[in-house]
Structure formats: structure tokens, C-alpha cells
Amino acid sequence: MIFYEIVRRAVYAVSYLWLRVRVEGKRNIPRRGPFILLMNHESFLDPMLVHAVCPRQVFSMTKSTQFAKPVMRVLVSNLGGFPTRRYRVDPQTVRVALRFLAEGRGVGIFPEGERSWDGRLQPFRRGTIRFVLKAGVPVIPCGVVGAYDAWPRWDRFHWLRPFIHRPPVTVRFGEPLHFRRHDSRAEREEVLEGTMATIRAAIGEVREA
User: Which DSSP helix (H) or strand (E) runs through 9?
Assistant: First the structure.
């Protein structure tokens, strides 16, 4: 926790000076108890920025390749990341995430599953929505705006771009969404599409506000 807080404050300071990061809606993050933070994903910068400005620690699903090297594994783990396999349901990841929620913590997920190629909101992974319906805890829609312009996925010289282009970046937390817990798969499938549409609309609204 101490390491996390030190890194969080350092990243926040750099982000504020470098990208002029503006934060809105912090009051929408519950002061205590479990919650799920669902964020759009338009840049490599997104997880760092969200972790830096969120008033509570968030434990985020992170692609398993980030844990391949020992140094990265230690760093990402200490910053609240836990591995998940992309493009498939990972039962172990679900169990870990549910355990964090049971402990009253926050869990962060990028429902698109990967960074956008064009800055627009991509289709959501159904597994994320099923997890939301299984958990039954408050969902906070989060919009990151401007990070794509600072560091887009497709940029060949991505490591130089942030030092050349300094567009303002906004991280905006929306009002909590509440979905009833559905214990059976049949119940979750019945409300899956409607829940996905609601969450997608909420993230779209906080991005455009």
C-alpha cells in the first residue's frame, strides 16, 4: 500500500505537469465498500492515469503478458494489477476479482478488452458484463479523454509522441450504476444485452460531458 501510494503520487505529479490532467467526479467513487470501475481504453496511458487520480486504490485486470518479465511482474503486482488472459473467460481471474470485491475493494476493468485503434469506443466483451451481473456491486463508469491524442496505439514513434504532443487529458468518473446480482447464468444472459447497452451509454456520456 505504501509503495502504491508513493508511485500514485509521483505519477499524478508528472501527469499534472506533463499532460495537464484534469479530474472530474471524484465524489462518485464510494468512500468505502466494493465497486467496479469500468473505463474506456484509448491509450497505453489510461491505466496509469486512472490509478493516479482515483481517490481509492483499484485492483485492475491486466493482460497476462505484462507479468512475463520478473521486474514487470513485481511492479504491476504491487500497483494492484492481477493477470487475465485476453479474448477468453479466465475463471481464476474472476475468482480473484470477486475476492477483492468481497474484501470491500475496488476492481478496475477495460470492457473493450484492448486499446482502441481510432480513439472511438470499441465493442465490449460480454464476459465483463457477465462479471458485473455476477458481482452485484456499484459500477462507476469512467471516461478518459485526450489520452489517444497524446499516445495512440498505432503511433510508430509512440515513446516520443507524449514529449512532443501535450494535449489536455481529462479523467471523468460518472455517477454509480446499480445492477441486481444475478447468481444463475440463465438470469445473467437474460439481461446481458440491456445491461451492456446501459453501461456503454454511461461511459459514452462521461467521455462527452
Answer: helix 2-19
Helix (H) or strand (E) holding 188: helix 185-208
Answer for the pair 12, 52: CB distance below 8 angstroms, yes or no.
yes
The pTM assigned to this predicted structure is: 0.89
SS3 content of the chain, % helix, strand, coil (to 5): 45, 15, 40
Task: Name the packing angle between helices 126-135 and 91-102 (round to 10°).
Answer: 30
How many other CB atoms are found less than 10 A from the CB of residue 169? 26
In the chain, % of residues over pLDDT 90: 54
* 152 within 8 A of 158, measured Cβ to Cβ: yes
- How do residues 153-208 score in pLDDT, each as one tens digit? 876 555 555 555 677 899 999 999 999 999 999 999 999 999 999 999 999 999 98
- H or E segment at 44? none
